[in-house]
Amino acid sequence: MKKYQRDAIVGIERENERDETYRSKSNPQIDCERTPHNYHFIKPDDTYTVFINQRITDLAPKRKVKDDAVLMCSFFVGASPEFFVGKDRDDIGAFFFECTEFFAERYGRENIISAIVHLDETTPHMHLNLMPVLDGRLCAKQLFDRKELRSIQTDLHNDVGKHWGLERGKEGSTAEHLDTAEFKLKKMKEAAARAERQADEAEYRQAIAEKGADAAESRQAHAEEATQALEKKRGKLECEVEPLQAAAEVLQEYSDGKCKLNKRDLPVIAAEAAKLKAENGQLEQQLEMSRRDQHDVFTLYQKSEREKQALQSDADILRQIREHAPDKLKEALATAEQRKTTKHSSPFNGSGSNRGGK
Predict the structure, then answer these.
(1) Which of 178, 221, 234, 274 measures 20 to 30 Å from 249, CA to CA?
(2) Is position 349 within any domain?
(3) How much is the mean pLDDT over the chain?
(4) Contact 144, 1 (CB under 8 A)
């Protein structure tokens, strides 16, 4: 809970009641695209200042309100990020509605300036702002003393938190409570750590994808070169076969009696035919080997294409990370690179450096 005097109220209102055009220098985790999803349980008809002035008029204090008087007390109502996991908008709304009703019954609904739920930051939470009115007068010091603040935590847990499965903070703990700014800073650091881990994982996937893509491209290039070489070889063999085929056709004509054969030429023709037959057989074998080689190359090419398509999925994931969180990814990659450099340069880095730990 934070107490505010008049000069601070406008700034708090601007931060609480923001729209998608609002920009904060102290809270960069606000996602302006999600700001329209914020909603009220209690919404002021006018500005906070107008509400406060009208309420003071209604109270009709006997004395003039001091310039340094506390006019508004602001409660930050939330839970751990784990609590909201798996809960839809209705569940979240029901939880914060019960919290709002708790404050309304305890301190008067007429004194609540605003109760707004923020869904545009890392973890859903509610800002509840009220005027500290006790017995018809402003008295923040008497209304919210230490005893009352401890009682709020206990009673809010008993009335709301318990049946939602939440645990009350340790009563009497000396741990310092975080104010809103410190709480948000803590959540921002946790989000940055998660982004860094995601960036490390993305960098690893990118390295694997790039390595696989390089290998696939190399195999594809090799397959294309081999295919071209085999095509040239096949063309050369076909050119060499053509004259032999023509000679075989001439011999077939002699065999069919279409041409008269000179007996003196028989030994020469027979020897030439045997030679042609042998050469033709060798060329046919070479052609068959060429066809098999081409088939193997085509199979390798298809395998490379499948691997290339499989690697495209990892590339798409990395592209999405770069598109939706480029600054965080760049910062995390730089941090990861620095860690690698430190790790490699450390004289204590090794497989046995963690022995004897916890």
Answers:
(1) 234
(2) no
(3) 81
(4) yes
User: Which residues 6+ apart lie within 8 Å of 178 measured at CB?
Assistant: 186
**Inter-axis angle of helices 180-255 and 266-324, to 10 degrees?**
170
Domain region containing 101: 2-175
Q: What pLDDT, on a 0 to 100 scale, did the predictor assign at position 179?
A: 55
CATH code at 7?
A: 3.30.930.30
Alpha-carbon dihedral angle through residues 264, 270, 273, 274, given to the nearest 10 degrees: -150
- The answer for residues whose C-beta is within 8 angstroms of residue 31's C-beta and 6 or more apart is 120, 121
Phi, psi at 222, each rounded to 5°: -60, -40
Orientation angle between helical segments 48-59 and 6-16, nearest 10 degrees: 130
The pTM (predicted TM-score) of the whole model is 0.51
Residues 6 or more apart from 125 whose CB is under 8 A from it? 76, 77, 78, 117, 118
* Residue 63 main-chain phi, psi, to 5 deg: -115, 155
Helix H or strand E encompassing 138: strand 137-138
Q: Domain count of the chain?
A: 2
Q: Distance (Å, rounded) from C-alpha 259 to C-alpha 250?
A: 9
On whether both 171 and 197 belong to a single domain, the answer is: no
Least confident of 137-141, 188-192, 303-307: 188-192
Distance of CA 270 to the CA centre of its chain: 80
Q: CATH number, domain at 283? A: 1.10.287
Counting DSSP H helices and E strands in the chain, the numbers are 9, 7
If one counts every other C-beta atom within 10 angstroms of the C-beta of residue 161, the result is: 22
Mean of pLDDT values over 159-172 = 83
- Position of tokens 């707004």? 116
